[in-house]
Amino acid sequence: DADVTQTPRNRITKTGKRIMLECSQTKGHDRMYWYRQDPGLGLRLIYYSFDVKDINKGEISDGYSVSRQAQAKFSLSLESAIPNQTALYFCATRDPRGEQFFGPGTRLTVL
Amino acid sequence: AQSVTQLGSHVSVSEGALVLLRCNYSSSVPPYLFWYVQYPNQGLQLLLKYTTGATLVKGINGFEAEFKKSETSFHLTKPSAHMSDAAEYFCAVSDRYGTDKLIFGTGTRLQVFP
Question: How far is CA A105 from the centre of its chain?
Fold first, then answer.
């Protein structure tokens, strides 16, 4: 089984809808991250969490919110989706040596 | 602030040829550096990393990279390309004295021709 899982893998939604992307990990890592990937822009950090009570904004947090329900779960929400939030979203965990482990990604399309 | 520049958004090589993907970084503190690979419709997989110690780092699938502080570079190489190496490659630097977040380059897509 994968160490970092994301659901759903693909989602098509309409402008204005609320969307939640979920991430679960079995690696036991405290630190978790949400990135978005856009062609030609690489990956950019949306939010990150050092533990359940420590959540921080990344470089592109506007329009997004997160919830760290437990050490193993870190959800990303789009309160009112807009077309320029169409992207590939990745969740990641970090081990104490600095390596990050990525989930398979969620492809989100906002019409 | 830290940053990463990957020169060349697309690189094409013939099977069996040398692969060279360029990465330059900017960091005010000693960096941790990473190369990740992304195969089509998949997540990112770590190829190799430099933290401390030996500056020539060997990774999976025959790749290696050399940390050159004087040139602020961390170029990725493989002596002989294989068709299965076709993928997108990302260089990243870790903000290890701050948030530990990864700062990624914009990626290089490697094509391998028979």
Answer: 8
Placement of tokens 């989930």 in the chain = A103
- Placement of tokens 């437990």 in the chain: A70
Three-state secondary structure of A66-97: EEEEECCEEEEEECCCCHHHCEEEEEEEECCC
For residue A1, is pLDDT > 70? no
Q: Which one-letter amino acid corresponds to residue A55? A: I
**pLDDT digits 0-9 by tens, A82-98:** 999 999 999 999 988 77
**Chain B residues within 8 A of A56 when measuring between CB atoms:** 99
In total, chain B counts a number of residues equal to 114
Burial class (CB in 10 A: 0-12, 13-18, 19+), A91: buried
Residue that the structure tokens 């939030």 belong to? A85
Three-state DSSP state, B85: helix
Nearest Cα to Cα of residue B102 among B24, B56, B35: B35
Helices of type H across chain B: none
Interface residues of A toward B, Cβ cutoff 8 Å, are 4, 31, 33, 35, 40-45, 48, 56, 58, 90, 92, 94, 97-105
pLDDT under 70: residue ranges of chain B: 96-99
